[in-house]
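Limitations

Structures in this collection are predictions, not experimental determinations, and the ligand pose is part of the prediction. Treat each record accordingly. The example that follows, with copper (II) ion as the small molecule, is included so readers can see exactly what is and is not provided: the inputs are given verbatim, and the output is the predicted complex.
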Amino acid sequence: MARVFVLRRSTLILFGALFAVVLIAAFYISSVNSDTPASAAASTAEYHIAVIEFEGKTKQGQEYEIYRFDPGTIYVQHGQQVTLNFHGVHGAQHPFIIEGYNIQDTVKKGETTSVQFTADRKGTFRIICIAHDEHTSHVPMIGYLVVN
Ligand SMILES: [Cu+2]
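Predicted complex:
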């Protein structure tokens, strides 16, 4: 024998609202209590940086070229495990250092150079290409790592 229950619309809405409240509460409690998965995801940062070249001419017709890290500024959080992948698009090679982090490596054309470190020092640190760090090539090839 099947019995048919007839629910009024207001009862259905009430149950729906109660269900939504329980769901939101459960989600809130789980996000407050389980800090491991959320912080594990936030504790890493990975960036891809292209090494590119721009060319230009002065009004007098003199040609010049500059190399850039693109993006030129990288923002990470203090304590994050950071991976920077440098992709060599233009220029044969760019030996670089990251000030304050004792990091030294070289980006080569057509290759990817990855550096990994823990962002354990706060501040703004220059990423300097030591082959193009002079103002003689119009703009020195310098990027910035900002650790907040
Ligand atoms: Cu360079």
